[in-house]
Amino acid sequence: MATTSKRITRKELRQPDWFQTTSDKALDQFAQHRTKVLAALAGLIAIGLIIAGWQVFKSRHNAAASKTYGAALALYQTEKYREAIPEFQKVQDYRWSRYAALAYLYEANSYLGLGEPAKAVAPAERFLSATGPDTLYRQIAAMTLAAIDERQNQCKQALARYAEAERIKNALQQEARLGKARCAEQLGDFQSAAVSYRDFLKEDQDSLVSVRLAELEGKIKAPPAAK
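User: That's the sequence. What structure does it adopt?
Assistant: Structure tokens below.
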């Protein structure tokens, strides 16, 4: 059965279609909220410019810091620690640079190289504050502060630092165990020292540390001296 198509009246033809109606509504809404829309667009553009400017600033900062850091490192590697320290301090002025934190570490190590551990504390603590938890840098910071404490005969503080470094499963974990053992011995806690040496030997069975452990176990087994 044939179907008849619906005829469109002239009145209907004169009426606006869906697209025109929708477009008109959108334009009306834009006109009503013109100020807010333009303000939002301006804000987005400003944010984009700030981000772009920040990236340029950081890039220039890193380039300048890299040059100064390279010069400071060259002095450090030739054991010119006294000359290296002010150069590393210049790098620290580029605080948004990736080199600033490392400059604190090398300043601390320079003071250690000069035999001035008390002066190494402040830059070492600044380096620690710049590191993330459970990272290699955090482990290095803990080991550096432990070395400073040990140089100043503060074995209780050093022991805690070495324990913190050992907890982080990274490159210096074995060295941290040796530090713990060494400080425990200094404090007369031979049992704890022996535990740390054994933990070390689990990872390195052929180490000469086994000789030190045997000597320590001999002390532990020996009867106390008569009063």
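Residues 34-77 form the longest helix (44 residues).
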